[in-house]
Specification:
The complex is a heterodimer of chains A (169) and B (110). By secondary structure, chain A is mostly helical. Chain A contains 5 helices and 3 strands, in the order H-H-H-E-H-E-E-H. The longest helix of chain A is centred in the middle third of the chain and has 30 residues, at 62-91. Chain A starts with a helix and ends with a helix. Helices cover 60% and strands 11% of the residues of chain A. In chain B, helix 2 (34-59) packs antiparallel against helix 3 (64-91). The termini of chain B are far apart. The chains are: A mainly alpha (169), B mainly alpha (110). Chains A and B meet through helix 1, helix 3, strand 1, helix 4 and strand 2 of A and helix 1, helix 2, helix 3, strand 1 and helix 4 of B. Strand 1 (100-105) of chain A pairs parallel with strand 1 of chain B.
């Protein structure tokens, strides 16, 4: 409990500083904001820290962070592709959709890893995570290319899962 | 000079963002069922907001950090909200479009 509480409080304080900081703020005002932020961060951390998954300090290893940054850039690229794809679908007169809900399997174990995978799937071309059932994920797909769990899985989550495995291994 | 270039670059990003909003809205009207609509609106509005925030950040550089923090929270929370809504709708019995080809989630529940 103690460690997690400290992490949450510090993280919230950092976010708070990022939100209040601006180049022309006076020192006095900044300190006032900072003190208020720290007090509120501690209060929020005390209430919510038990709900967070404690991953531990080993997840800050540089190699994991490097893989996470790689994941982030792949994700950004896929997101732009997803949007162009969606624009193409909604603007074409025939509306080329072939929707359905498919099932895929994932090897990721940690809930946080599954959350990142699920979010990445939701924001990438034509797919949206609906539910997890242990290692199975149910994905709504605008244009179903395969109902085979393996093949669909490779198309939907291939790249992301490989990178996330390195981050959360 | 540089300020002007940043201004124009920011305007381009804001314009691209609003284009994505427009596509999302068209998708919302044209898609056949709830799940497809949700897909159209979630994806396009998320990237639209990101592009918008980045554009405003370029115009007002001193806000950039705040805007990036806001963007981060949107990226983290928007898909979770969409998934939760889709799951709740499915559990509440909202049917897929009749031309949908497969529904593994329904099969699992049986």
């Amino acid at each position: 409990m103690g460690g997690k509480f400290a992490y949450v409080a510090i993280l919230l304080t950092i976010i708070w500083i990022a939100l209040i900081y601006s180049p022309n703020i006076t020192m006095e005002a900044f300190l006032e904001e900072l003190v208020a932020g720290i007090i509120i961060s501690i209060g929020v951390a005390a209430i919510t820290s038990k709900n967070f998954e404690g991953l531990g300090i080993k997840y800050l290893h540089p190699k994991r962070i490097a893989y996470f940054i790689a994941f982030f850039f792949v994700f950004l690229k896929e997101m732009v592709k997803a949007n162009l794809n969606m624009a193409r679908i909604v603007l074409s007169p025939k509306l080329p959709v072939k929707p359905g809900i498919v099932e895929i399997e994932t090897d990721l174990k940690l809930p946080s890893a599954k959350l990142f995978l699920g979010n990445a799937i939701t924001l990438t071309p034509g797919t949206m995570t609906i539910d997890y059932d242990n290692n199975k994920a149910y994905i709504h797909w605008v244009y179903v290319e395969s109902t085979e769990p393996k093949k669909a899985g490779e198309i939907i989550k291939g790249k992301f899962e490989r990178l996330l495995k390195e981050v959360f291994s | 000079m540089i300020g002007q270039i940043l201004d124009y670059a920011g305007m381009i990003f804001v314009f691209i963002g609003s284009l994505f909003f427009l596509f999302g809205t068209i998708g919302l009207v044209r898609m056949p069922d709830l799940y497809n609509r949700m897909q159209a609106s979630t994806k396009t509005t998320t990237l639209g907001v990101l592009s918008f925030l980045f554009g405003i950040g370029l115009m007002q550089l001193q806000w950039m950090i705040k805007l990036l923090v806001i963007a981060l929270f949107i990226v983290l929370t928007a898909p979770v909200g969409a998934s939760a809504l889709a799951r709740a709708s499915h559990n509440a019995g909202i049917k897929l479009w009749e031309k949908s080809i497969v529904d593994k989630y329904e099969e699992r529940k049986k």
